[in-house]
Design brief:
This protein is an alpha+beta fold and 181 residues long. It has helices at residues 24-40, 85-89, 101-110, 114-118, 128-144, and strands spanning 2-4, 50-52, 61-70, 74-81, 92-96, 149-159, 166-168, 171-175. The protein folds into two domains: 2-52, no CATH class; 61-180, ATP-grasp fold, B domain (D-amino Acid Aminotransferase, Chain A, domain 1), CATH 3.30.470.20. Strands 3, 4, 5, 6, 7 and 8 form a six-stranded antiparallel beta sheet that branches. A hairpin with a 6-residue loop joins β6 (149-159) and β7.
Length: 181
């Protein structure tokens, strides 16, 4: 379960996410809990659009895919470990958009944490083909929308074992205000 609000960009920081909610009673209690946490964090009820209830995603390797549009260089795409690791490890790589899947594969192998994706200590290799497709697609989207896009933060982008794919579990996209275009 996740609180839905355009004014709360990082929901985990206010306790706005609940995992592994087992049943309907827990969903009802979770709804009340998430609303009370948002209120306690200083957000008015008008800022809350509701609560998202979604299936629990299987565990995988959390990565981050991001875009920042630089006024001089245009859209730059970042890749690294995601979730809480992105701020702690500061292990990421960057490319100007657009780029293809071959370049995305190079990015994936540039981070110091690459062995986690390769399969370390008996772990299975991650689906780096799905990850590279997503990075390349994000770069094409950023390049095509560079005139209105400010930033994209896809975190976590979970990558499952080889052949099982990957998925965005949360994303924040910021577009320029119409008077800034």
């Amino acid at each position: 379960m996740k609180i839905c609000s355009p004014v709360i960009p990082h929901k985990t920081e206010i306790g706005g996410v609940l995992l592994a909610v087992p049943d309907g009673a827990a969903v009802r209690a979770g709804y009340d809990l998430l609303l009370s946490r948002a209120t306690a964090a200083g957000y008015e009820s008008a800022a809350i659009e509701g609560v998202l209830v979604a299936p629990m995603a299987p565990k995988g390797i959390e990565t981050i895919l991001g875009v920042n549009v630089d006024p001089t260089f245009g859209p730059a795409v970042i890749f690294g470990l995601g979730g809480i690791h992105v701020e702690v490890l500061r292990d990421s790589t960057l490319r100007l958009a657009p780029f293809d899947e071959a370049e995305a594969q190079k990015m994936i192998r540039e981070i110091r944490s690459w062995p986690l994706l390769e399969g370390v200590r008996g772990g299975k290799p991650a689906d780096t083909d799905a990850l590279a497709k997503a990075l390349a697609a994000l770069s094409r989207f950023a390049a095509a929308n560079a005139d209105t896009l400010v930033s994209i933060d896809v975190n976590p982008f979970v990558v499952w074992e080889q052949g099982k794919g990957a998925a965005a579990l949360d994303a924040l996209i910021t577009f320029a205000e119409p008077d800034e275009i």
